[in-house]
């Protein structure tokens, strides 16, 4: 009798559990949106074209009139600006309060003009750095420390700092401070005083190797290496990019200053500049910057930004070229194609449901995003899924833990967002994905025809209880 009662109890418990599980299991289905790539120009931050404007900090002159004029004539389609700040008036000692106030005023004015700043400090515009630089490296370091307080207060509006203050035109050449020891001292000090959110860059891959004391660009993942990218004002100007590269292989070399061949150095950048920005000027009309060759090089170097005025012959050559590939850009000029691919460019390719774990009461939403731009983005932009009940209008937000910095150029990345019925009741829901830059308070636009500044519609999610489906 006792065994009979125990058996009935077990059957009851199993049946009750089965009914409970049945009542709490849900059926998910997704009517996914069709995703079509757009050929439009996207006004996203931290990439695109720039003009150069230079200012001498001085106790005797104010930049007001020059500054106001240059802001008024800067092309409105440019989202970036390169500001060269000349410190030669203070080569003998500290920058005065007047000079520092001018720096703050200049940065504030360009931020108010809705430009993100590429910043370069220097002592020379005329190829006379030996004469105009401080005679003591400690004065250069003092200037780094003094300007850092102001730079850091504008960190959200500064994209990258080029150079380490020295060399002709700030390009790390023809200076008293280009020994490996001095470069390491200046680069290390600059990194220590500048806000870590601001990337830094040096002129050549060989400079990077000397400062990092490594031939391995994967070292960018460790320590300060990930902060240092490159800038190149001789881009595609010759076989060596006007001395940026060498003519011998650095394979097997133990000398960090050795410059490799063009092929080696571009391969080096192809890895390094997934982690830190690269940009500059395309110069001197020649076969290396013919349109098809240029696209391959800009993509391999992961270029985010280019000078919009120099070299005009090269830019006009791209404007005259026609993009003739079987894609959405077919028929655009070469210049338009390059413009649309500077930096990152996110295209949503697919959205689908995926089974979660066995005991999870929901599903995973898998969203596939391809970065078709030449480069990565170097900021982590928040991704948020907005779930709107189509009947009640109630809204649920789910923040993705995906890091947009890892959306590598030329690759597709899947992000996974759990959908759980502990927070989503049966019903129909409209799904929208949005991406934004909290520093500049701007949306990040997707390169899809249906995308808007408010995000991109993914589709409609339907949730119902299996028990209801079963009983009906």
- CATH fold assignment of the largest domain: TIM Barrel
The tally of strands reads 17
Helix tally equals 12
Report how far the terminal alpha carbons are from each other: 39 Å
Helix content: 25-40%
- The CATH architecture of the largest domain can be named as Alpha-Beta Barrel
Rough outline: globular
- Uncertain regions: pLDDT < 50 for 5+ in a row? 8-23, 468-472
CATH class of the largest domain: Alpha Beta
The number of domains is 2
Report the β-strand fraction as a percent range.
15-25%
> What is the average of the pLDDT values?
92
H-E string: HEEHEHEHHEHEHEHEHEHHEEEEEEEEH
Task: Characterize this entry briefly.
By secondary structure, this protein is an alpha/beta fold. It has 12 helices and 17 strands.
